Structure formats: C-alpha cells, structure tokens
Amino acid sequence: MKIVIIGLGYIGLPTAIMFANHGQDVVGVDVNEQVIKELNTGKIHIEEPGLQAELDKALSSQSFRAEMIVEPADAFIISVPTPNHNDRLKSCDLSYVQSAVTSILPVLRKGNTVIIESTIAPRSTEDHILPLIESTGLVVGKDVFLVHCPERVLPGQIIYELIHNNRIIGGVTPACTQAGKRVYSTFVQGELIESAASTAEMSKLIENTYRDVNIALTNELVRISARLGIDALDVINMANKHPRVNLLQPGPGVGGHCLAVDPYFIAAEAPKESQLIQRARHINTTMPDFIVDQTVALLEKIQGKKIAVFGLTYKGDIDDIRESPALEIYYKLFAMPQFEVVAYDPHVRASFVETDMKKATMDADLILILVDHSEFRILAAKDFDNMYQQAFLDTRNIMTRCKDEKNYYNLGNLSKITGTHQVNVTA
User: Fold this and answer.
1) Is 204 annotated as catalytic?
2) 176 shares its domain with 268
3) Structure confidence by residue, pLDDT tens digits, 126-149
4) Are residues 173 and 63 in the same domain?
5) How far is CA 301 from the centre of its chain?
6) Are the C-beta atoms of 64 and 28 separated by less than 8 Å?
7) Residue range 342-354, pLDDT digits in tens
C-alpha cells in the first residue's frame, strides 16, 4: 500500500516511519523545505527516543521519503496542526486541515482512503471535510472513504504507543470505518475500535478534557490549601489511597497541543453547556500567574534578586514548548526589572537559554523548577554550591534530594512563604 502523510511534526513523522517500517511505501509531505532536506539525509528534527533509529531503518529499506508535493496514493493521512482561533472560546482553526485536504483533491481517485488524524472539533469531518472531498464528484462511502482516527500517544513513548495503543477508527459510513481499519491493521497491535467520525472526534477531545479538569481540581486544591496552611500534596497522596479516587498531580499550568487546546474545541461548539470545562480552563490558564506571585513573594521573603528557571517545555524529557506554562512564567518574570532571570533547559536550544547549569545558577538566590526533566531529579543541594543563597521552589515536586533544605518549597507547602494568608492570583 502506498500512503501519503501530510504534516511531519511530532505525530505525523513517527506515524509515517511506523508505516514505512511495517511494509508500506510511504511519502511524507511537509511545507518546510528544511525539514524535507534533513529527513532525506537521515536527520530528524524533533526529539523522540528511538525515532532516529527508526528513520535510519526506513531510509535504508527505501520505504520512506520526504517531499513537498502531494502525489497519488492508496491512502492519505492528514496530520497537521489545528490551532485555536483568537475568539472568546478559542475555537478550532481548521484552515491547515482544509488546506491539506484541498492539496490531495487533484490526485484523489476511486478506492482511496482519506484519514484525518489532526485533532478537530466535533462534527468537523462530516460538516467541513466531507463537502471538500465530494466537491470532486466522488461520493464518500462509495467512491472514496473518509475516516477520523485521532492519535493517543505520549511524547517520549510515541513509537511503542503507536503500535500497542488501542485506536479509534471513526468512519463517516461503515464502509469508511472498514477502510480505515485496513490501513491501521498493517502495524497497530492494539484494538481497532469501530466508531462514527463524530464520536471519534468527541472521544479524543473528552479524553484530554478529563485530564484538564482533573488537574484543575488539584490546582485549585493547591490554592485552597495554601490559604488554609494545609499540605496539598499530602492531601492528594492520601486521597489517592481511596480505591475510587485518582487525582492527578498539580503543576504550574497545562501545556502542549492537547490538554491546553482540546477542551476549547468542545466549549466553542456548546458554550452554554460547557461551564465546567470553561472553568477548568480558567483555573489552569491562571496557574502561571499564581506561580509568578508565589515566586515574587518568596524572593521578597529571602531578599533575593536572581532566579534560575529550570525547564521551559510543557512536560518532562521532551523539547516541545508549545503552549508551555513554564515558558509563560519565564517571560513574565523576565519582564520584571527588579529581578535577574536566567533560563536553563537541557532539551531546548534557543539563544536565550543558558546551556551550562553552573553558569545559570551562579550567584542565584532561587531555583524555580517548572518541568520534570529526568536531569533535574538527580540533583542535590551540593550541585548548587555556587548560588548566593540556596532556595528552591519546586512546582513539580521532583527535587527530592533538596527537600531537607530549609528553603525548599513545593506546591504542598506554599503557606511557608507568606503564612496561611496567601497572595491572590493576578489573573
């Protein structure tokens, strides 16, 4: 089977390579000429464990190549970004998906399967993509097959999860669903779950919305507990010993192109009915301001000036900074003239990021940990002997070797900073 995959980002590229390494002839298409050149010369442009070796294998077998132009194929998979519109509820911007679908229309033939992997708002496949396909005169469900098949993978484990996770196959018609199953059965070992397209769209969105709401609950618990002088992390640990409770961990906010984006796609389609979802989004989007307020209060307490920000990505052990609350916090602190702020992240390459930890922490008063990178977990107080004073604000609760320090704070003991009467979030 020949497969064209449009969009060679964090999901599209691993997906293309998995198909290529399981006996399919794959052409990856992207608008970024530099990405195309790098891939065809054997260099990946994203950080993902094991992906480089998989690309090497695909190039060696000549089962994968990257191009800028769409060409005829048996199946087309759309894996391009779906950003938010700049409206009140940040609705789904389908322009990239529609552009990608439009690009395949000149080469679309009877018997082809078109799969939308991009995360989209409910009913987008039927209401927006289907009319585009049928503008060619081809009938969906009879001449060509249209499917929404959302990805459900964890960065850092994408290769394994692409193969082993269950996969939702949401066809516009039953025949479309079966066509989608034929495509993914070439390498997916998890269950291929049959569904309608609109149900598949909503399932993907509600999975991430559930996590966003759960995190919002624990983030609100952090604020309440800080006000009342209670250790929120202890509360969560004890509550999770209940057999039917599973509270997620709080943090400095929610980022990435899933949890921080997908809930809006539901809310925008049903504004009156989605009050809980909207409230959860508000709680999580204001956490960066809350963390900034705590940081400022702590620096005032210790009379400190220099902050070393540890971590800029939206989660640990990746290089993805999309929708990152850590990056937002860094910029907010950097804009305050009374502080010197240095960013350190071993996974991010940017001109403003210090690559040497010792330089980043030299004469610092505070280490602000915003990301749970593995490199940070092994650090102890002795690794910071070049600081002016050793204070730690650990929003990820990972620097366990520093917890004995007098000036160690996490999201459980924030009341130590200003007492039980906490500063209010400014948002």
Assistant:
1) yes
2) no
3) 999 999 999 999 999 999 999 999
4) yes
5) 35
6) yes
7) 999 999 999 999 9
Helix, strand, or coil here: 229? coil
| Domain contains 372 | no
Same domain, 183 and 209: no
Is residue 104 situated within a structural domain?
yes
Q: Please report whether residue 356 resides in a domain.
A: no
Residues 118 and 7 sit within 8 Å (Cβ to Cβ): yes
The whole-number average pLDDT for the span 228-232 is 95
User: What pLDDT score was predicted for residue 420?
Assistant: 57
Pairing, β 366-369 against β 145-148: unpaired
Look over the chain and give the mean of its residue pLDDT values, rounded to a whole number. Answer: 95
The CA distance from 22 to 202, in Å, is 29
Query: Which among 92, 149, 258, 402 is annotated as catalytic?
Result: 258
- pLDDT-derived band at 426 (thresholds 50, 70, 90) equals low
pLDDT of residue 406: 82
Per-residue confidence band for 253, with pLDDT thresholds at 50, 70 and 90: very high
Please check whether residue 260 is in contact with residue 321, taking contact to mean a CB–CB distance below 8 angstroms.
no
Q: What letter would DSSP give residue 105?
A: G
Structure tokens, 196: 């309608």
Among 192, 167, 176, CA closest to 130 = 176
Residue finishing a domain among 167, 190, 213: 190
Q: Tell me how far apart the alpha carbons of residues 302 and 307 are, in angstroms, rounded to a whole number.
A: 12
Q: CA angle, 331 as apex, 327 and 337 as ends, to 5°?
A: 155
CATH of the domain at 166: 3.40.50.720
pLDDT of residue 80: 97
CATH number at residue 251: 1.10.1040.10
Supply the range of the domain harboring residue 56.
Answer: 2-190
Catalytic-residue membership of 258: yes
- Identify whether residues 65 and 23 lie together within a single domain: yes
Cα–Cα distance, 427 to 425 (Å, whole number): 6
The mean pLDDT of 335-340, rounded to a whole number, is: 97
Q: Which residue is catalytic, options 90, 181, 204, 416?
A: 204
Least confident of 206-220, 327-341, 410-424: 410-424
* Residue matched to tokens 């850590």: 326
Residue 267 within a domain = yes
Look at residue 424 in the predicted model and tell me its pLDDT: 56
Same-domain pairing of 239 and 127: no
Q: Which of 18, 425, 373, 385 is nearest to 187 (CA)?
A: 18
d(CA 59, CA 69): 19
Residues above pLDDT 90, as percent of the chain: 92
